[in-house]
Amino acid sequence: MEVSARSRLRVRIQNIAFVVLFLGVMGLLAWLSTQYTYQADWTAGHRNTLTQASVRVLKRIAGPVTITAYARENPQLRRRIRNLVDRYRRAKSDIRLDFINPDTVPAQVRQLGITVDGELVIQYRGRSQQLTQLSEQALTNALLRVASGTKRRAVFLTGHGERAPLGRANFDLGDFGRELERKGIAVRTLNLADVPNIPAGTTVLVIASPRVNLLPGETAEIVDYVKKGGNLLWFHDPGPLHGLDPLAKALHIRLLPGTIVDPAAVRLFRAPFALVTRYPPTPVTQGMNLLTLFPEAAAITIDGNHDDWQGGAFLQSSAASWDTTRPLKGTISFVAGKDRRGPQDIGVYLTRAIPSKDVGKRKSAPGSSARPRSQRIAVIGDGDFLSNTYLGNAGNLNLGLKIFQWITHNDRFVDVPARTAPDRTLTLSASEEGIMGFGLLFGLPVLLLGSGIVVWYRRRRR
Question: Is residue 170 within a helix (H) or strand (E), and if so which, with residue range?
Answer without folding.
Answer: none
